[in-house]
Amino acid sequence: MVRLQARSDEPNLPGRRRLSEGELAMLLDSHVRFLAGKGGKRAQLPFVDFTGLDLSGRKLAGADLTGSVFDGARLPGADLSGAILAGCDLRRADLRAANLRRADLRGTCLSGANLAGADLTEADFRPGVIGRPHPTRGYPSVIEEHRSGEVDGANLSGATLDGSRLDGLYAADADFSDASLKGARMVGANLKGANLTGAFLARLDICGAILEDAEFNGADLTGVVLTSARTQGAKLAGAVAPPTRDAIARAEKLVIQARAHHSWVDTGGRDGGPARLDDADLRSAQDGLKGLKLTAISAKGANLAGLDVSGIQLQGANLEGCDLRGAMLCGADLRGARLMGADLTRADLTDANLGPLPLSADRSTPANLTGARLRYAKLERAILTGAILDGADLRGAKRPE
Description:
little secondary structure, Pectate Lyase C-like, two-stranded antiparallel ribbon, 5 strands, 9% helix, 7% strand
């Protein structure tokens, strides 16, 4: 447990200092030099009043911000990785696409905050012991109080919380749609009425959690033991079931066929033969398709959610209606691929090529992503030249520069 100063709703926040614009700029610039190994000094800014300030894109990795108040502050794109934010008040703060990897958020209040697309991998939301001012004597007299982390009503859509520690978290009515909580711990957490539509919850530990009235439509619950949680009123009918035994057995055979297709492409048709993966559930294939040459393959309606297929060659492939949520497609060759209606939510398409596929000296065919879902997809350095994106959903996607 950590001992922290409490939050306050009063305009003049007791025990917290308000820095001048010049002083704050000097301290933050010194921290940037510290991070770059060019002198400077690590930012030690506990119990500071940052209410309403604009810190967009600021580099605050590893900074000590214990017990500070950021009510309504703007921090989109800020680097707070490894930062100490224990006991902070971040209510209504704008933290869209912020980097909070391994941040210390014990006892922190994020009620109503916007964390859409934020990276909270291995962040620590566990309870902490804080101190609040004595009602009559004020500081230095304090009353100790045990407090859990709070994200009630917060927007965590598309956020990454893999491996995070969320035990005891109060997350009623929070929006976790399209978020990833793979391998996270939510023991005893309260998610009453939370929205987990399309979320990746594989191996999430929810022992003793309150999931009453929560929405799970499209959520991946592989390895999640629901019997250990309170699920009265939870909407579980639309959740994605784990692969069946038959699907796993079929996937093993299809991976062998896919490798034969690779040989067929690699040898110009001398070895192997073309494969079809239409409507196949390949989630159990793990990295069996990684880097294969599957040019012109048909995989309409196939489920490749969460697979690592980095470097795969899918030029001219038919991937209509494919489930590629959370798939690793880094460096994939998707020139001329048909991806109409495909779900690429949270897919990593960094360095992928979605440009036109040359057919002859004067003919080419574009990649077609009409109606595709690319919410919170990573598209850094991806080539999208000429790609058809009519009706595609790109909300929260990290697009090429």
